């Protein structure tokens, strides 16, 4: 009985996809340079986001990515096609596939000229609820939570990419450089928290689509963690006294200490997430280093003592933070630079830059095209 019911559900889902393909082919062409390819692009989007829950049409997804790579002006039409698809579905399979395609388009959007970039995600799935009849109530809620977690990350990522200024626009010798660095690090740490929420929320979710989504999230995690590590290294080095360098204010030092403790907590969460990915059989988890380097609490306390002692008092109330340096931490001007440099090189560069670039390039090129 179960096999017959599943057959009918899949047949009904296939009919929905065929109806969507027919409507896309009958839709009038839009004016503009892309008027001849809007139909083909929308057809590829529909096929890449079909109701089939056993696999994804990676060939159609690769076609969408290829259009976006060769013609950046296709980014926004592709996003609009995904938005139409999302507005009409209550199926977690279609929603998750659309998010994965949107993720790939956003990665390509970062390489496009500013005028052609996709901007913020043009659909809303923060309150998504699965209404497909192919899952039980408990599993349906778990898949819905997974889709919402993926959307929250992707939505914030697109907003962050649209608003962020480049590092070249900030002079390392200006007085606001350290606070600007801390603000960017804090945003990336929040982005990392959203990424770590992309995980199964119930048993029985080890299906190919969920593992594929976690595969994409894992690539992004290494990119974001690498940026956090680089930002922390720059902040710590900027706090060292030197010629033509602004002094480290206590407000910046206090904010930096909070950032360090948050980073130490996230490094522990990353270790657990990597173990989860290995246990589930996520593809990119096989490329993870055997031992992930974590920042130890003792190192954070040592850095905290150095930062707070070297900082100049600016009369700000923000200088007071919980967990300040122990009383037995004394200032060692000669050792401060040595200690900070040692911790930065041995603890924060836990992911080799070459690996980060490899995984980033692997996802940007469209890993969907290399599969079925």
TrEMBL record:
One of its GO terms (cellular component) is Golgi apparatus. GO terms for molecular function: 1-phosphatidylinositol binding; clathrin heavy chain binding; phosphatidylinositol-4,5-bisphosphate binding; SNARE binding. Its main location: cytoplasm. It is found in: Cytoplasmic vesicle, Clathrin-coated vesicle; Golgi apparatus; Membrane, Clathrin-coated pit. SUPFAM superfamilies: ENTH/VHS domain, GAT-like domain. This is Clathrin assembly protein. Keywords: Coated pit, Cytoplasmic vesicle, Endocytosis, Golgi apparatus, Membrane. InterPro entries: ANTH_dom, ANTH_dom_sf, ANTH_N_plant, AP180-like, ENTH, ENTH_VHS. The keyword Transferase does not apply.
């Amino acid at each position: 009985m179960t096999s017959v019911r599943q057959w009918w559900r899949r047949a009904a889902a296939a009919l929905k996809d065929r109806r969507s393909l027919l409507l896309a082919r009958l839709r009038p062409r839009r004016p503009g340079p892309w008027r001849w390819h809007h139909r083909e692009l929308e057809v590829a989007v529909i096929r890449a986001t079909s109701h089939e829950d056993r696999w994804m049409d990676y060939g159609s997804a690769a076609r969408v990515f290829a259009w976006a790579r060769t013609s950046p002006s296709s980014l926004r039409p592709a996003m609009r096609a995904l938005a139409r698809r999302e507005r009409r579905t209550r199926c977690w399979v279609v929603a998750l596939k659309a998010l994965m395609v949107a993720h790939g388009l956003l990665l390509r959007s970062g390489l496009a000229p500013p005028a052609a970039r996709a901007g913020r995600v043009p659909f809303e799935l923060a309150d998504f609820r699965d209404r497909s009849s192919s899952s039980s109530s408990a599993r349906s809620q778990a898949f819905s939570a997974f889709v919402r977690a993926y959307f929250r990350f992707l939505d914030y990522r697109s907003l962050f990419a649209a608003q962020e200024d480049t590092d070249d626009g900030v002079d390392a010798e200006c007085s606001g450089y350290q606070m600007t660095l801390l603000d960017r690090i804090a945003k990336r740490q929040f982005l990392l928290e959203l990424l770590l929420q992309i995980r199964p929320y119930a048993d029985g979710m080890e299906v190919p689509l969920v593992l594929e989504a976690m595969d994409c999230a894992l690539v992004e995690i290494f990119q974001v963690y690498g940026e956090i590590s680089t930002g922390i290294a720059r902040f710590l080095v900027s706090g060292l006294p030197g010629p033509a360098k602004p002094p480290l204010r206590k407000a910046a030092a206090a904010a930096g200490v909070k950032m360090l403790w948050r980073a130490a907590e996230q490094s522990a969460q990353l270790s657990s997430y990597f173990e989860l990915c290995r246990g589930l059989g996520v593809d990119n988890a096989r490329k993870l280093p055997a031992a992930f380097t974590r920042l130890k609490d003792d190192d954070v306390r040592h850095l905290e003592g150095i930062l707070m002692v070297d900082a100049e008092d600016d009369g700000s109330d923000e200088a007071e933070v919980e967990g300040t340096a122990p009383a037995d931490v004394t200032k060692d001007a000669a050792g401060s630079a040595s200690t900070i440099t040692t911790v930065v090189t041995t603890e924060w560069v836990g992911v080799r830059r070459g690996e980060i670039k490899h995984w980033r390039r692997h996802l940007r090129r469209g890993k969907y095209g290399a599969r079925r």
